[in-house]
Amino acid sequence: MIDHPRRLLLQLAIVLAICGTGRLAYATDAGDGVDQPAAKAALLKAYPGLFTISGNVLTWADGTTMVWDDGKARDAEALLESPDIEDMFRYVYPTAAEGALVPAEDFDPGRIRNEAFFEKLYGKSAADVGKHIANVKWLPKLGKKTVQVTKVFGINDRLGKISDVLEAMPAELSRYGLKPGGGFVWRPIAGTNRLSVHSFGAAFDINVGFSDYWYNNRNKTNPKTHIPFKNRIPLKIVELFEKNGFIWGGRWYHYDTMHFEYRPELLLYKKSG
User: Fold this and answer.
1) Same domain flag for 136 and 10
2) Are residues 13 and 40 in the same domain?
3) CA distance 214 to 271
4) Tens of pLDDT along 112-126?
5) What residue stretches are annotated with the Peptidase M15C domain (predicted)?
């Protein structure tokens, strides 16, 4: 008699775990590939003192609770539309140190965002977020622009430091910051009902003149066709943003190469190995 398929898969997973590592991979490694202890540790370190995580429950300082992992299997579309908190770690973000990469299909580390979590971090409305918005002088000697981002987690100061370093770089690099696309604006992501991270003042678009965006390069007659990857932003600049807690939209299959957003938890999770 043939065993139940799910039981066979479990038996195979146990055998592979023993052969590959010499130990069983229990609940520390989720079936979706997320290293649970490392992901929880990264989130707690990224946003210290705001919440605790015990078992499958994240509890905010005001007593609000959220489910860490609801146990639901999600395809790529569902991961974007209705992720739990654990799902945000589904893909490991590749840093600039890994060099030029072409993202695999639907590989979008950072595009998966639990909106309720971000609303707790930054605010649930434009008015709430707006209370913490600050002006940052961006490349004040070269471009003389002012952009707006949140003061929460010192994001405004972080962006200011990036501006100072970028402005001091050779012209072939600093020119990529001369036409910034902006920071804070309360809006949904184009074509969706999901809030952009720009809504929270935690994202910045570095240059509209050197931007490549997946939606503009998709096959309009056959949307399921593989999207060709394009990028003109140097990795030296990406590395500068990463040092200050930002990830880059150029590491996504659905890429947005001028886009940077503050996601220290993904960089910490990457560093954990």
Assistant:
1) no
2) no
3) 28
4) 999 999 999 999 999
5) 191-262
